[in-house]
Every structure is written in structure tokens, then in C-alpha cells.
Amino acid sequence: MDESLRELERQFSQNPTEALRRQVATAYRRQGRLFDAWRLIRNFKDWPERRELSLAMWQEQKNWFDARPGSREAFVQWAPTALGAHSEGKASSINTLIRNPVQGHIYQLKLDPSSRTLNKRSVPEFEAGFKFISSLIGGDGFKADESAHTQLTNWLSGFKFIEHFNSQSNLHWWPVLPSWPHLTRIRARFLHLRSHEELNRFPKLKSLSVGTFSLLSSADNFQDNLAIQHVRIRQIYRPEQYLLFSFLPKLKALESLALGFSLHGDEMETLGRFKKLKQLTLRFETLSAERLQMLSSLHEMRSLTLSRCAISNEAMERLLQFPKLQSLSLVETEFENNALSHLVGLSKLENLELSKTPLDDNGLSELKRFPSLKRLWIQTCPLLGRNSTDLITDIPQLEEIDFNLTRIDKLRLQATRPDVTILNPIESPFTKHSSLKIH
To answer: CB atoms < 10 A from the CB of 99, how many?
Structure first.
């Protein structure tokens, strides 16, 4: 990265005006960093640079896949701005996609919101021999009406290699999904299970990610041998929460669990039964030592995220019951700074996020005692003082840090610790660990 771009980034982080935003995006594009440029201007729909960048990104993507016709990662994505199609025109997005395949081998099919409703008349437009599709994505507003259910089910059954299904709307697809033998991942904003058969028909399903989960069936009817390893649920209707916690113990292979709602006491105890659990995300919890004691049997825990929680000193010390913990995120979580001293005993802890917390210089000074700490995220910590820069330099194993919206002096830190990579303040890569958004 040249010095002129560094200076632009520094000015933009201090004064994010539209003029500087355009300059930084232009500099990124000149260096071929199209995705970084897109992150900056994607929300400014009236800017001509946005359309030009969209076309450039689509063309680069197409060129990459054209050069790799045998790659199983190849896909076609219909985009109105890129292909020049108009949703209000007679030529639908489906026809545009079929007439412009990449190398004739499509492994991922994405249906745009402009596709609107699929009905008896439009189903034949899909029958174009896409037999090798392994990933199917339905956009917002894309749904099948009642008249097309049978025909759509028959059409979807033709895709024998489907492994990933992503519905960005309220999963209007669910009643018409066939029993795909290779399906391993389902992602949806809303999932409504009416009976156990709807999930039992996917014996190889490993990942279930849902915005709002609704369960209207007794868990007694679910198979005990479900292969699901990863579950992410942002919210659930409160009257049905007890049904969820009668269903989760059926998942004997569960390794990753993210819940976006608070738990009752006995539900926390249920989590302690998952002996293979390696990743856990909890939100809106008040954690005492007694409640964390219920998780003491989770000896394989590698990653723990506590978002918008409150944790006592005694509970912080209880985290030592996870000796294999490598990543800990306490984003937007209340704690006392002297409680961080209890975490020194986590000898394998490499990644720590304390963003949007009451972290001050006293708490920051404890981090130099962490034996394996390599990556640190402390965005938006207003209580950090001017001594925080010196305290950062004292962390011996530190390799990467993100301190956006704090008093830490970037230039002085670069001078004293050139071995530490300062992450781009525009976007933190750790947000994916603490977010429960369903994209």
C-alpha cells in the first residue's frame, strides 16, 4: 500500500466526508481492490461510480470463472445492472440467465427479487438442463404460488446434486422442497416446521441457519441420528421456545450453536449436554458463576461469543473451565475491568474482542499477561485514555489489532510496533463472529 493511500485512509477515518469516501474508493479501484471500493459506496445508489463499479465487479467475476470451466465453485448470478435487463420488461430475469450461461456449467443459481412469483406459466422457463447445480438461492420476494407447487417440486427434484439451499425470503419454498439426498446446508430468514418429516427427509443436513424459527411439532418424533452440526437461530416465538430445547438434544453431532435470545435457567443446563460443542454464541444473558457452571462439561469449546450480556467477576473466572478456548468475544457486554485478570489462565486464547465495552486503561494493561494473544478488537471503547497506545505496545505476541473510534495513536503505534498489522478501520473482520444477521 502506497503512502498516499495510507494518508487518504487516515483522513477518511478522522473525517468521513463524501468527497474523501469517493477518493478512497477510487484509489482502491485503481489498485484492483474492487470489493473494498464496493463496501464504501454500495449504499450511495445515486452515484454513477456505483454502477460503473458494479459492472466492473461482475465482469471480473465472469472472467475468473470463464478461466476455470471445471471449477465446482463456478456460478451464475443474474444482476439487472450487470446484464442490462429490466425487471419491468417482457424478458424475465430467468430467460436472461438461461441465455447467458457461463461455460454452460452452472453450479450455483441465484434468483433475483425481480423474478417475483413463480407460477405454472413461468416454471417451463427454468427447464434448461441445469442438472449440475449444487447451490440454489432464492431472493427476497421470490416464492411459488399454490398453482405451481407440484410442478415446481418436480422441477426441483431434477437437481440431483443440490448441497446448499438459501432462501433470503420467508422460505415460501419449504412446502415444495424435494428430498434432496445431498443437501447439507439450509439458510433462511424464517423457517416454520410443521412436522418432524419436514426435517427428517434431509439425512445429510449439517447446517441450519435461521432468522426466525417456528416449531409446531413435538421433538419426540425427530430422529436421534440427525447429522446437523451447526445451528444458528436469531429469534424464536417465545411460546415455542420450550419445543426448541426439546429438539436440540436430538442433535448428537452439534458442534456450533448461536442463539439470539435469552435463555431460561433449565435451558442453559440443556446446553451443557452437548459434549462435542466447539462454538457457542449467546445474547442478552446475565451470566453468573452458577449459570456458567452449567456449561462446565463443554471441554471441547474453542470459541465463545457473549453479545449484549452482563458477566460478573466470578463468572469471568469460571471461563477457565474452557481450557481449549482460542477465541473470546465480549462485544457490547458489561464487565469490571479487573475481571480480565482471571482470563490470564486461558493459555490458548489467541483472539479477543472487547468492542463497545467499558474497557479502560486498567483493563487494557492486563492483556500483556495473556501468553498467546495475537489478535485484538477494541472498537468503540470510549473509556480508553491516552496511555492506551503504550499499553498496546506492551502486548508481546500481538500480531493484529482493530481500534477504530478509540484514542489510540495509529502513527505512534506503527512506529513502536511495526510488526503489528493495523486492520482497516472501515470494516472489522471480527463482526462475523458477533453478528447473528441472516444474509
So the answer is: 10
Percent of the chain whose pLDDT exceeds 90: 36
Could you give the angle at which helices 3-14 and 18-30 cross, rounded to 10 degrees?
Answer: 150
Q: 330 exposed, middle or buried (CB, 10 Å; 0-12, 13-18, 19+)?
A: buried
- Give pTM, 2 decimals: 0.71
Domain boundary, last residue among 41, 67, 93: 67
Q: Which three cell numbers stand for residue 413?
A: 503505534
Query: Could you give the CA distance from residue 339 to residue 221 in angstroms, rounded to a whole number?
Result: 45
Residue whose entry in the numeric block shows the C-alpha cell 492506551: 388
Q: How many domains in the chain?
A: 2
pLDDT at 426: 45
Question: Measured between alpha carbons, how far is 137 from 77 in angstroms, rounded to an integer?
Answer: 10
**Per-residue pLDDT tens digits for 296-345:** 999 999 999 999 999 999 999 999 999 999 999 999 999 999 999 999 99
Residue 293 is assigned to a structural domain of this protein: no
The amino acid present at 327, given as its one-letter code, is: S
Grid cell for residue 207: 447446517
Determine, yes or no, domain membership for 354: yes
238-275 burial, b if ≥16 CB within 10 A, otherwise e? eeebebbbebbebbeebbbbbbbbebeeebbebbeebe
Range of the domain at 6: 1-67
Does residue 324 belong to any structural domain of this protein?
A: yes
Looking only at the bridges linking them, the beta strands covering 108-111 and 76-77 are: parallel
CATH number reported for the structural domain that contains residue 371 in this entry: 3.80.10.10
CB 75 within 8 A of CB 65: yes
Q: Which three cell numbers stand for residue 196?
A: 418432524
Burial classification of residue 405, based on how many CB atoms lie within 10 Å of its CB (0-12 exposed, 13-18 middle, 19 or more buried): middle
Distance CA 36, CA 25 (A): 7
316 phi and psi, to 5 degrees? Answer: -60, -40
Three cell numbers, residue 383? 473509556
Residue that is last in its domain, among 51, 67, 83: 67
Q: Kindly give, in sequence order, each residue whose CB lies less than 8 Å from that of residue 102, ignoring residues fewer than 6 positions away.
A: 62, 65, 66, 74, 75, 76
What distance lies between CA 109 and its chain's CA centroid? 20
Residue-level pLDDT at 169? 60
Q: What are the b/e assignments for 135-147, b being 16+ CB within 10 Å? A: bbbbbebbbbeee
In a domain, 25, yes or no: yes
The answer for residues whose C-beta is within 8 angstroms of residue 64's C-beta and 6 or more apart is: none
Write the DSSP symbol of residue 357: S
User: CA-CA distance, 64 to 58, in Å (whole number)?
Assistant: 10
